Fold this sequence. Notes:
This protein is mainly alpha-helical.
Amino acid sequence: MSEAERHERKTPEPSGVDLARQALAAAREQARARGNAVSGRGRRQQPGLRSGARADGRDPMPLMAALDRLRTERGWEMPIAVAGVMERWAEIVGPEIAAHCEPERYEERELLVRCDSSAWAAQLKLLAPQLVARLNADLGQGTVRLIKVQGPGGRPKRYGPWRAPGSSGPGDTYG
């Protein structure tokens, strides 16, 4: 046997564990050279990233609590509350009014309600201050500032950009 063959037999091939140890030692040496050496025992963790027995913001929470938190963070509380009012309209105003008047939309603290006849629109206009008070008691003070009531037809549709003074729509353009 030659000298080279004997030398190969004396030093076995490094295993995966040995290679990992060498890589770890090299990484620790580089960290020491950079000045941010980390020892195995006295390792410092960033505040708030440590797991423990006490509750913190990363713990799982019940679904309803997560939805409530999301609703609060996004500012969806008022639109969700108003949507609840739209669903419970008959309970709030009573079945007789609800049969003839229906809420359409809520924008900028104003509730638009459409009635099926002009008589019911007039009646609801008289009841509007009481309904505003009832809605604010249910939703929170200042949620509804005004109830706008519209009759069955609403505003006439404007068919074009040019309008003749005193005209009422497309039917009076000739004659």
